[in-house]
Amino acid sequence: MKTYDNIVPVDFWNPDPAVIARAAALIRAGELVAFPTETVYGLGGNALDGEAVKKIYAAKGRPSDNPLILHFPSPEAVEAAAYVDARARRLMERFWPGPLTLVLPARDCVSKEARGGLTTVGCRMPDYPAALAFFSACGVPVAGPSANRSGRPSPTNARTVAEDIGSAAAMILDAGECRVGVESTVLDVSGAVPVLLRPGGVAMEELREFLGEVALPVGVNELKRSPGTRYRHYAPAVEVRVWEPGAAFAWPERFTYMGVAAAEEEPARQIRFDSFAAYAHGLFTALRELEKDGLPIVAQWPPLVGIGRALRDRISRAAGLA
User: What residues does each domain of the chain span?
Assistant: First the structure.
């Protein structure tokens, strides 16, 4: 098995201060560092440094009009990069640290490259002690999309990061497997009514219970404010087909399968999950594993509730349906 010199192990709870200091120094020097979060691994660069952010886009092969999420060690740190109102503070108090990105009006110090040319910016505080120690040591907002080639399934472990982007990251902080497995929810709170731009680790039902009204985007102009919504994402190297139990479906002659329910036909190989939460956690790893067989992947279509909304979004994009 190939080894990667840029992978550096870190403890989830108590990362080595010397390792964190080295990683932070790389960020301040304009280099890229891949880091773990509870959702997926991110590819980080200094959000205030346009040249560093350009390296992120180049490493991923990502369109430069696709804005990046900024990561912070605390709610207070966001104030230096974005304008935070009372509603946003309430959301931070309730859901941070955690898998919720808030789209806020950006301050001028945030590079236009990190904002994708917009006047807003996505802000997040992950629920991951090693990552928070890293962000704190950096002393600047860390722009960080998922640490994979654009269009590929997102990485949930350090080896997948290295296989996808190689030496583009000067360092890959390895704290093991991510526990959520799908990216953060993106909620636009820059306007009068909050808009769910991307479903993720915080469910729509939780947001509506807390806020009351939460709208869905009605056009491409709203989606422009969110990362990961306007280009094909999460796609393996083989066709993905969507199956809903009980619905008419033309099963391929040979296929692999992933889902919670049993497939109605016999797959060549399958990855089964005991819950939709587990399905979400293992989705990207399953896509990367099953594509190795070179057969169509049949993916169970989840219900549109809870984590199922985020899971359905990722599967539909992998299948080219969105």
Answer: 7-183, 240-318
pLDDT at 3 over 90: no
Per-residue confidence (pLDDT) for residue 233, from 0 to 100:
74
Dump the DSSP string for 254-313. S-EEEESSPPSS--SEEEE-SSHHHHHHHHHHHHHHHGGGTSPEEEEPPPSSTHHHHHHH
Please report the pLDDT score of residue 224 as a whole number.
60
**3-state SS class at 160:** helix
Are 103 and 122 within 8 A, CB to CB? yes
**CA dist 94 → 56, 75, 98, 124 (Å):** 31, 11, 9, 13
Tokens of 131: 């990552």
pLDDT, tens digit (0-9, with 9 covering 90-100), for 21-70: 999 999 999 999 999 999 999 999 999 999 999 999 999 999 999 999 99
| Strand 256-259 to 297-300 pairing | parallel
Q: Which of 67, 117, 72 is nearest to 92 (CA)?
A: 72
Superfamily of the domain at 7-183: DHBP synthase (3.90.870.10)
Beta carbons within 10 angstroms of residue 291's beta carbon: 19
| Rounded Cα gap, residues 308 and 200, in angstroms | 9
Burial class (CB in 10 A: 0-12, 13-18, 19+), 275: exposed
| Cα gap 237→290, rounded to integer Å | 10
Tell me if 134 sits within 8 A of 35, measured CB to CB.
Answer: yes
Q: In degrees to the nearest 10, what's the CA dihedral of 198, 203, 209, 212?
A: 10
DSSP state of 108: T
Peptide bond just before 267 cis, omega within 30 deg: no
Handedness of CA 258, 259, 262, 263 (dihedral sign): negative
